[in-house]
Structure formats: C-alpha cells, structure tokens
Amino acid sequence: MARVGGAGALAALAPDELLALGARVHRAIGDSAAEAAPGALTAARRRTAAAAMDAIIPRTDTPGAVDAGGPTFLAAMLDHWFTPAERDGITGGLDALDAHARATLGTSFAAADPARRLPLLEALDAEVASARAAPAARPSAPAGPLVRRGAGAAADQAALHWWAAFRFVTVWAWGSARVVQEGVGGTWPMPGRYDPDAPVRLRRAGAAR
Amino acid sequence: MSGGHATAGPTAAARTYDAIVVGSGMSGGWAAKELCARGLRTLVLEAGRAWDPVADAVEHVPPWEQPFRGLGDRRRAEARQPVQRESVAFDAMSRRFWADDVEHPYTHADGRPFHYFRPSHVGGKSVMWGRQVYRLSDVDFTANLRDGVGVDWPIRAADLAPWYDRVERFIGVSGQAEGLPHLPDGVFLPPMAMTPVERHLRARVRAAYGGERVVTMGRVAMLTRPHGGRSACHYCGPCARGCSARAYFSSPNVTLPAAAATGRLTLRPRTVVRELVWNARLGRLTGVRAVDADTRAELAFDARLVFLCAGAIESARLLLLSASPTFPDGLANGSGQVGRNVMDHIKGAGASARFDGWEDVAPVGERPNGVYVPPFRNVSARHPDFPRAYAFQGGARREGWRDRLTEGGFGAAFKRRLETPGGWTFSWEARGEMLPNERNRMTLHPTRVDAWGVPVAHFDVAWGDAELAMHRDMARTAAEMLEAAGARDVRAFARPSVPGGTNHEMGTARMGRDPRTSVLDGFGRAHEVPNLFVTDGACMTSSPCQNPSLTYMAVTARAADHAVRLLNRREL
Question: Which residues of B touch A117 (CB under 8 A)?
C-alpha cells in the first residue's frame, strides 16, 4: 500500500483502511501500549477476560486465544464495535465474574486456580444454553443456516447474553488470528487449488475468509 | 484504459459520440464492447467511481488485517449502509463496492419492504455478482403465453442461442453439460469438482427421481483453465471483493478492456445521468444530460444511439425522469409499463442436513461455487398450486471453527473441536420465479431526492400467492431430496426473502410485441424511441428462476449488433 505520512494522509484513508493501519500500529507497539490505552477493557477487566479466554481456548502445543490476541481484539470490539448497551453488558459481566470469584474463591478471577474458576464459567455456559432454549430466542420461522453470518451473528450473541458474545469474540479472535491460520494445518497461505477429496491430516483450522 | 480507470474526460469539442451507454456493469460493458468493436465511438457514463480492478481488488487480505478481523466496521455500516449490508455479498472488505445509502436513499410502501442493493463503482454488480450463469429455454420464453400472465416474450430461445454462444465463448463459463432441454447446455470450460457428498447426492437423486431432478455442478462465469489471457481460478474464495487474477467475469476485467482496446471507448465515472434528451422535431434522442458527481457541474453529451444499461431500477428511473410534452408519463412510456412489473427471485426456502461418512477427506481450497438443481416444477407436468419453477443452489462442506462460535465448552477438548474438521453438512436454498404483476411497481418519489437532487425511487412490491405457494414447496422438495439421499438431521427452512433481496430486480421496461402493452421490442429497442435500447434487467418480460445475468449479456450483444445494422442501413 501507499506509504502513509502525516495527518493529511491519514485523513485520506477510508475508515476501514484506517482501522487496518491501526491494527498494524498496535502490532508494532505491542500489547503493553494497547493495555494502557483508555477504554472499556480496563486493566482489571483485561486480566479477567484473558483468564476466561484461556479457559475456553488454552495454549497447548498450538496457540490459544490469548496468543491469538483475544484481549486486544475484545478491547477494540468494546470500544468501536458493540453498542453501548452490549459493551456495558460485557464489561458488567466481567466485573460480576470477578466479584463472584472474590466472594466465593477469596481471590480475583484471574488469580484463582484454573480448576476452581472453571465451575463459574460452566455456570455461564448453562445460562447461555437456557437463554438459547427460551422461546423468545427462537425465530418465528426457521431461517437458513447462512442467514446470519459474521457481524450479524456476533450482534445476535450480544443480544442473547453477554457470555455468548464473549465466547463469540474469543473463538473469532482465535480463528482469525495469523498465528492460527498460518499454523500447522491452517489455511494460510492459500493453497491455490481446490481438491474436494484431500486426505485429512493433522489439525485444520478451517476456512479463513 | 487501465482496467476500470477512466480515460480523460471529454472536452467541449469531443462531446459528440456515436453511442452513449449509461452504466458500465454487466450489460453496459457488453454494449461498450460490441459497439466499439463495430466501429462506434462510444461514451460510457457511470455514476460510480473509478478503481483499478487488479490493484484495488482486496480478495487476498487475510482476516487478521481486515477491519475487526473480518467482522467489519459495524458502526459505519449501520450509519451509511444499513440496506446494503443485508446483501449476501456485503462483508468487511466488499463493502467498498456497495452504495452509500445516505447518498442513495429510496422509499417503499408501508408494510411492503424492498431491498435495493446498488453498486458504487465502475463495473457495477458484475464485480460482486454470484457468477452463476444459465441459459433460458422456450419453457421460459413461452411461459407468459402459456399461463396467460403478463405479455408474451417477443423472442424465443433460438433468437438468443447464437448470442449465448458468443457471450459464453468470450467470458468463459465452467459447467457440466446435462442435455436438459429446459436448461440448455452452453459452451463450457471444465466444471468445478464436486465434494464426495455432492457426488453421492447426485447419484441418489438421479436414482430416486428418474432424471426428473438433477444435481449438477453450478455453471459459473469463472475460469477453470486459462482463457482469453486471463488466469484460472485459484480458489481463494471471496469473489465479491474483486479478482486480481481476473478469473471470473466482470466488466472491468473483461468487456471494458476489450472495448478500450479498440481505441474508441471513453469511460466517464462519477457521472450521474439525469435525463435522456428527446427531440420531438427529430423524433429521436439527441443525447443525455448529466451532472459530475463530485464538482456538480452540469454536463451534456450527444450521440446517435443510446444504450440504457443502468440496472432495472435506475434505467426505469431515468425513463421516468425523462418526461417531456411528447412523453408526459416518462420517456418511451406510452404503454404506462415503465416501472411496473418489478420482479425479483424469491428465496429463503431450502433445507440443511448432515451426511455420515467420508471422514478421511476434507476439501482444500475455497470453491466459490456450489451444486445446482435445475428447475423441475412446471417443466412438463403442471403443479396445482403455482405456475412457475425454482432451482436450488447449495453445497456440502465439513464443519470448522466457525460452526463452534455459538457452542459451549472449555479447554483442550473444546480446542480440539475447533482444530479438527467436523462432520459433513449440506444446505441448499431455492430461487424461484416471480410472476409479472403490474401492481408491483416503482415510481418516482414526489418529494425525496438523492444527494444530487434527483427524485428517488419508491417501491410498492410484494410477493403474490403464487410465489408464496411455491416458497412452501421449495422447503418440502429441498428436504425430501436430502432424505432420499440418506441424510440425517434434515431441517427444512422457509422464511421468504424481502423482495429485491436476491438482487435480481427486473421487468421495469418489458419487451413485448405490442407497443400498447410493452416498452421494448424483441431487440430491446424502445417501441416509441427509435435510437434507444434498454438491455439490462428492465427488459425482462418474465423472471425465469435461472440467474439472469447471462441473458442480459446475450440480449445486449444481440441488441448492439442490431443497432449497428440499423445505423449502417441509415434506419436509425
């Protein structure tokens, strides 16, 4: 792309180009600076979020959700993507999760032993499952599997339950991350061919679009 | 010309052309190519912006570099593109090809929503289209006559066949010949490959329905081997973001460069045509009036011939805007049919299922195509509940991490589910024909105007009983074929799409034999305006369920040939 120099050049960029540039800047200056930036994901919430993301998709012999930049992605989503009500639902949920840990485990959620904090998250999964099963969550007529994709699906999750939105962001952050897509069995770089009968080998992260 | 970039704008001395083409998309590109090739100095006027179809294509931007990692800028979309974002081809990167709804508003009747998806650039929807291309047959061309609906098409399949050939040879179409009389085979490059589940489904449906229903590979304007100096598809996937390999047909990648190569093309982007100029004394158009979209300068261009290829809605809007004492209800609208008979394909009905087996294989690469079930209702036997037909499009894939976005679970076990291919799922959805109905119409809004002060389109369109009855049948047959193939968890779905939502709007200036009941003749020439041709979706007399763009291209090529013959015989 064209070299960017100064505010005038920045002003010439379309908003999505500006965001892409912003993402590159964030990568360049690292997570520490992003952590210090003001926003809805305060340092305390960020620790809670990172611990919860690690519980959902931990680092094993492959990168986990935190390695994939999950907390930074969540911060951007909270500040620039979710509606104020959705944002407050998620930040309030993180605060409540941490408060619940302090009350029941005697320590912050982030500092708690992973095995002891897991039941708190399983309870949230159960809440989401109940919300999904509620009649209000069901559409009046069945829609096709492709009707709600990407952004629409993310907004749907936020409308359902803050934890559903948090999980969505976590899995999306992981699946869309370079360290995952370029990892063993990922789909980048693109194969440059189509083979509908390719043998399944090792892990595959699925399509990146 | 370099791809979609403009050549220099016309100078005052160069404002007279042999032909003016309004619109640079599917039809406009073909009109430009064919007219230029026949020696006409041709001006293409495009309301959208210039772009470079190779350098500015964004299909290879990886998800981690996309806005919000591919979820897109939601706030911007809600503020500026609340309608456009409903298109299946709108995403984080392709959004740049869709119009700004604030600049391009429209209205609809209360309780009768309409989705009007509009492009914003040179090439129009040929950049974001689904690329599915199917010929029409005489089952389609005789349908109105047979059913006593609308007016009879003034052409038959034989009239278009050589033009379908010409278009297919030039653009490159991959597909499987099936020998079906109601879905004529074309000039095909090798078809794309089916997944094992799709091959199984094809065999089982053939066995269950005795050849009445066929599962074939989608016929697409995409190259499966190099063709015409363009590369074969490399299966990167997101075609709606442009194609720097030029592997699928778009006017900026194929027809406009061909037109430019003649040296006779002038392409002027960001030019909003406001009126076609009728000269009552001469009994013909003398040109068009327009406004520069950026400077707001008033512009005028003259030509002996005008091709209106702005899309079914914009072309009709321009005719209505071009009222005069001769044509008080809109140019070429003595029949009163301009803006009427708005049609789209009804969708939103189909079925999904799971297939057990084939666990040792999974597709590599992103095939931007699926399987197709050609129309089978009302092809021979008449259905008691509705007169027309529908076709299915869909495909099989193995589940991946995106299918786990709404699942619960934790830790290494959940991660394994993300990293490991899931089972085979299949889904397909139908697109069905909408009957022409004069009550489904677009008009000019009496007070609302767009960013350039031009009255906006107002829609009053709704599905009729025939489309809704067919919609219910779509879901039934979608499910029964999957059940016949041994699928499990078969789930039918049926939620009618919003009219316009398939982006196959057509019929607003229909062809017909009688000037009292139609706007255009069989060549797309206006009955009442000898040097005006309208060859986009507006010209469609009915809306056969096959994806229509191939027919627009063939109609346009045929019309251009006819127009130049008339010019050469001094009959125009």
Answer: none
Cis bond leading into A114, ω under 30°? no
Instruction: Look up tokens 């508003």; give the residue.
Output: B105
d(CA A162, CA B457): 40
Q: Does A99 touch chain B (CB under 8 A)?
A: no
Average pLDDT of span B308-323: 98
A76 HSE (CA, 13 A, CB side): 22
Other C-beta atoms lying within 10 Å of the C-beta of residue A163: 24
Pick from A197, A202, A203 the residue to mutate for testing the B interface (most B CBs within 10 Å). A197
Cross-chain Cβ contact B60/A23 below 8 Å: no
pLDDT in tens, A133-190: 987 766 555 555 444 577 888 889 999 999 999 999 999 999 999 999 998 656 777 8
ipTM, two decimals: 0.93
Q: What is the pLDDT of residue A152?
A: 84
pTM as predicted: 0.92
Average pLDDT over chain B reads 96
SS3 A13: coil
To the nearest whole Å, the CA of B524 is away from the closest chain A CA by 36
| Whole-angstrom distance, CA of residue B99 vs CA of residue B445 | 19
Distance CA(B204)–CA(B499), nearest Å, equals 34
Beta-carbon contacts of B311 under 8 Å, excluding residues fewer than 6 positions away, are B23, B25, B118, B124, B125, B505, B536, B537, B538
Using an 8 Å CB-CB cutoff, list chain B residues near A77: 68, 71
Place of tokens 């706007």: B519
State the pLDDT at residue A136.
73
